[in-house]
Write a structure and sequence with these properties.
Layout lengths: L3 E5 L6 H10 L5 E6 L5 H10 L6 E5 L9 H9 L8 E4 L5 H11 L4 E7 L4 E5 L11 E4 L6 H7 L3 E2 L12 H12 L5 H14 L5 E3 H5 L12 H7 L8 E3 H23 L4 E9 L7 E9 L2 E8 L5 H19 L3 E7 L7 H8 L3 E3 L1 H13 L3
Parallel strand pairs: 1-2, 1-4, 2-3, 4-5, 13-14, 14-15
Antiparallel strand pairs: 5-6, 6-7, 8-11, 9-10, 11-12, 12-13
Helix pairs in contact: 3-4, 6-10, 7-10
Length: 380
């Protein structure tokens, strides 16, 4: 029997509606979206991301701002669109609580089943609202559909560069692990640290390919010569071709290795549904381009890890925290979980408190070296 899926739309959290359609929609079904006036623009976008033909979708829009807080107005608007003899499957995870209450009351008078998409636990709860609260007739089942990172971004109306092939590691875990051990155990000499700094300041991002001989003896006086660059590359077992370093290789040496190390650890410990590194996201009409170091999906929740192998000052740390917070609140929605990974020591826990205050978890040197596997396995 065909049915009509009903979703109440929330601007900052489209994921429950998206998953409800992906999980429940079958050939012959229809969809109703119920929206407040200020979320009306999101409905066309939902048509697109759900992949359901627009002629199968009906939209019930509360006509004026503030109508979502007028119980009787909500009920009248919805009631005018409903028909007897139709099987309605109503997802109550959306809109304001007030709207959900009105939606439940209206649909009780029709042939309706009630559901709640619980993204936190990746489950759907089916409930029967009757006079008995002792028959234990709530049914909970897991959501089988697994969102990709691209789908999550698309659901939040974000443009991205995920179609590009360069969101996988450049080098092996073994190479990233070498750098991790040198940096986490402070095994680099002061000269080695200076070489990394000079590569970052003078050579990162300038050209696609640069001869090593030119790094040893640069043509431009603005660039620092690194006559012992070959010794350093040999120290970290770094392979190169044609006596040249590429732009990507220099970026890897000067910090990209840390993102790749975290990525590999995530793949091993979390076994995510989808994972990418170096993802750029942006919104049309806004010039700002934001990069996500390590981003992955697990059970339809988005996890973003900002990777900073070194954070020199508390001010710099605060900037990283504020950036991660702004990204989540302004763009990534309530189903996003944010973390900062660093090799900075935090013996008194003060940096963890700063991050925690902004609802972000900070992984310091101790966690990265001693507790990372255990910490990652908790992200399920």
């Amino acid at each position: 029997m065909s049915k009509t899926l009903v979703n109440v739309i929330t601007e900052d959290n489209p994921i429950p509606a998206f998953l409800f359609v992906k999980e429940k929609f079958e050939l012959g079904d229809r969809i109703i979206y119920i929206s407040a006036k200020d979320t009306e623009d999101d409905l066309d976008w939902l048509d697109e991301i759900d992949g359901v033909s627009a002629d199968l979708v009906e939209k019930i829009i509360l006509k004026k701002d503030g109508d979502e807080f007028k119980y009787e107005q909500i009920c009248r608007n919805i009631l005018a669109h409903l028909q007897k003899g139709v099987q309605y499957c109503v997802n109550l995870a959306g809109g304001t609580r007030y709207m959900a209450l009105a939606v439940q009351n209206v649909f009780k008078g029709f042939n309706a089943q009630f559901f709640y998409v619980n993204v936190e636990d990746n489950t759907i709860i089916q409930s029967i609202f009757d006079d008995s609260i002792y028959d234990d007739d709530d049914y909970v089942y897991p959501i089988k559909y697994k969102m990709t990172v691209a789908e999550y971004m698309h659901a939040h109306a974000l443009d991205h560069d995920l179609e590009k092939p360069d969101h996988c590691p450049l080098l092996s875990f073994e190479m990233a692990d070498i750098m991790f051990k040198y940096c986490s155990k402070n095994l680099f000499s002061e000269r080695d640290k200076l070489i990394i700094k000079m590569l970052r300041d003078d050579y990162r991002g300038h050209r696609k390919v640069i001869p090593i001989a030119e790094i040893e003896n640069p043509k431009s006086k603005k660039r620092s010569p690194i006559p012992d660059i070959r010794r350093f590359l040999s120290l970290i077992s770094f392979s190169y071709k044609d006596d040249k370093l590429t732009k990507d290789q220099i970026e890897w040496i000067t910090g990209g290795w840390f993102e790749e190390y975290v990525y590999y650890m995530v793949m091993n410990c979390v076994k995510p549904d989808d994972a990418k590194i170096g993802v750029h996201i942006f919104r049309k009409g806004i010039k700002r381009d934001n990069e996500l170091d390590v981003v992955f999906m697990k059970n339809n929740r988005l996890f973003v890890i900002e990777c900073k192998s070194g954070v020199d000052t508390e001010r710099m740390f605060n900037e990283v925290v504020y950036k991660a917070t702004a990204l989540r609140e302004a763009l990534l929605g309530v189903s996003c979980y944010s973390y900062i990974a660093s090799l900075k020591n935090d013996p008194d826990g003060s940096l963890k408190k700063i991050a925690q205050y902004m609802d972000i978890e900070f992984w310091d040197h101790e966690i990265m070296v001693k507790k990372l596997k255990k910490t990652l396995k908790q992200l399920q």
